[in-house]
Amino acid sequence: MQKKSLNLAFLIAAIVLVAFVIITLMGKHNLAGWFLVSFFILVAIGFRRYPLLKGYSYPMVIFASVTLAMYFPQHFIRVGDFELKRLITPLLQIIMFGMGTTLSLWDFTRVIKMPKGVIIGVLCQFTIMPFLGWGIANIFPLRPEIAAGLILIGSCPSGLASNVMSYLAKANVALSITLTAVATILAPIVTPFYMKVLAGELVDISYWKMFIDIVKVVILPIGVGLIFHHTLHSRFKVLESIMPVVSMAGIAVILVVIIAMGRDDLLQVGLVLVVAVFLHNMCGYFLGYWAGRALRMPEQDCRTVALEVGMQNGGLASSIAADTLGKAATVGLAPAIFGSLMNITGSTLALWWRSKPLPEEKEVEGASA
User: Fold this and answer.
1) Are 314 and 335 in contact (CB under 8 A)?
2) Which secondary structure element, helix H or strand E, spans residue 49, and what is its range?
3) pLDDT band at residue 217, thresholds of 50, 70 and 90?
4) H-helix or E-strand spanning residue 166
């Protein structure tokens, strides 16, 4: 019965998509927007009961949210006199607090247990992506502030999404968590440095202002989350199930607000920027993986480094663009698009890797045969 209802969701989605195309050709764009939003939501529902497709449900919800922002931006810029961009930093702080509650001091002491993987992963994270962003920004015909957004997303650490994808990809989850934690702790130093050096000619950068802002929105909330984890975690175990949902909702809201604010600029440079961001993301996976292979890391660790390098903390980049730089509608566009795309590409790569046995699994299969 469940499979039938889900197949019905896909059938209705197909009908809704056809209706969207027809209504768009008729020029009724506002109405068409609701049909496209409905299409993504129906596809997300349809994916929920299929193990191989379940991981794509959240990206479909993100695409539905972005569609809302593109068609009806006026509803996501302000409510009355309150500008919704003021929600970006508090939401990111909540997300970072949630990240802190999932960490322990053991995640940081793993640096001693697996130094090679951590050193290689962090070096790849903070060399490949910033310079890729800078190179692509110089190749594509983008306005300076929008180009600076590519460098910004490349200069940020990885986020929680990479940990989830590492689990799906049969990668080294412990290494993934440690790399995310270490890169995030280093972000206040490294991110402003790269922005000053690589994007200083594109936008005005204050190193110390960015340093302080990253400490406030990332380091302090994570620190509070760590303390909470070690002192009150047993009393509030319900947070384990609530925080992931809150984090996903928070990321969706941040993306919607940024897209709504930059909608007019995005309509002008949309395709070019999407291609640039996609190239940035895919090259991150490719170079991260092959850097690990070149340095003779185990297959599991190579997959981990690829996902850590290719998947960035779009929420942090959006917060910096909005509050530190005051340019959410331009600098914030590349991070918003990156955050949307990486959920699809990361899920696809992780599920493809999941279908590929690890070398040790092949040995076990060979021995049992």
Assistant:
1) yes
2) none
3) confident
4) helix 160-168
| pLDDT tens by residue, 227-264 | 887 787 667 677 767 877 788 888 888 888 888 888 88
Q: Identify the burial level of 43 via C-beta atoms within 10 angstroms of its C-beta, where 0-12 means exposed, 13-18 middle and 19 or more buried.
A: buried
Q: Which of 256, 155, 228 is nearest to 196 (CA)?
A: 155
- Neighbouring residues of 240: CB distance < 8 A, sequence distance ≥ 6: 101
Residues in the chain: 369
Q: Is residue 133 part of a domain?
A: yes
Q: Characterise 326 by phi-psi region: left (phi > 0), alpha (psi -120 to 50), beta (else).
A: left
Q: Per DSSP, what are the bridge partners of residue 83? A: 78
Question: Across residues 56-74, what is the average pLDDT?
Answer: 85
Domain that holds residue 56: 1-80
Question: Contact at 8 Å (CB) between 339 and 157?
Answer: no
How far is it, in rounded angstroms, from Cα 263 to Cα 73?
Answer: 7
Q: What is the pTM of this model?
A: 0.85
Q: Report residue 60 CA to chain centroid gap.
A: 14
Q: Does residue 182 form part of some domain?
A: yes
Angle at CA of residue 217, ends 215 and 218, nearest 5°: 65
Residue 145 and residue 249 in one domain? yes
Kindly report, residue by residue over 331-360, the tens digit of the pLDDT.
888 988 898 888 889 888 888 888 887 776
Domain tally for the chain? 2
